[in-house]
Specification:
Layout (H helix, E strand, L loop, with lengths): L8 E7 L2 E7 L9 H8 L9 E7 L3 H5 L12 E7 L9 H13 L10 E6 L2 E8 L2 E8 L1 E2 L2 H7 L3 E4 L7 E7 L3 E6 L2 H6 L7 E3 L7 E8 L4 E8 L3 E3 L3 H15 L6 E6 L2 E8 L2 E7 L1 E7 L6
Parallel strand pairs: 2-3, 4-5, 11-13, 14-16
Antiparallel strand pairs: 1-2, 1-19, 3-4, 5-6, 6-7, 7-18, 8-10, 9-10, 9-12, 10-11, 13-14, 14-15, 16-17, 17-18
Length: 298
Amino acid sequence: MTPLPEGLAFTKGHGTGNDFVLYADPAGERPLTKDLAVALANRRFGIGGDGVIRAVRVAALADSLGATRAPVDTDAEWFMDYRNSDGSIAEMCGNGIRVFVAFLIDEGLADLADGGSIQIGTRAGPVLVRREDQDYVVDLGTWKFCGGQGAVRRGCDVRVFAAGLERPLGALSIDVGNPHVVAAVTEEELEALDLSAAPRLVPAPEHGANVEFALVDQSAGVIKMRVYERGSGETLSCGTGAAAAGLAAWAWAGAAGPTTWTVNVPGGTLRVRMMDDVVELSGPAELVAKGEVISSSN
């Protein structure tokens, strides 16, 4: 295992239980490598988290991202460099970006008044985050049903096989900056799910996908959800997954479906709102600890 970087200052934060290790690297001097992410995210030998986030200035990206550099809007000062706990790169993280903005504010790297907005660079492109009292609202931008309108009419374009279920589930594949597959379940199926291993998807997405299992109450506009995150396993919450679940539920309901959804995850509550061709995600971001790595031994 890669030694922990001695002297590294870090912050631990979470969005509805989806937790992250964050560190500031304004000049791009300490790249977030796969091995570093695995070491920091390890819950036994590291700090522990579903992922690791590095705050780096857009101007420093050329040196610190190398071949993985992503196009970002020049108006964004900061880039959210994110890796899952297994070290794999994720295009976006809806909970992570809220925690990222809270981290920038706490570190004095950004100033954001209530009602103000800040643009953040991500591998999915520029993302606008607005502060609303104690919550943050993320404009996830445009999205798409990967299987097109044919999949929407059928209600699915992927089959999901998961431990604990007696049947495969039909699901919709949705791109909200990163890939998702959303399956509707009953209360009994939601409780019986065993997500200690990754669900099997047929056909398998080229780059994998987060898999959401959604118990939908159309009349109340409420979703109860569990999720298996690509690269992290089952997590207490997934922000972009909540948005994907809201979009799937809206599609299943047809034209009469709600455009605002409350999504209850094991770690708390998120809100999703569809507007024209964009989707918004809102929820809390909490910073719970600060520290410094004092030993590089494992």
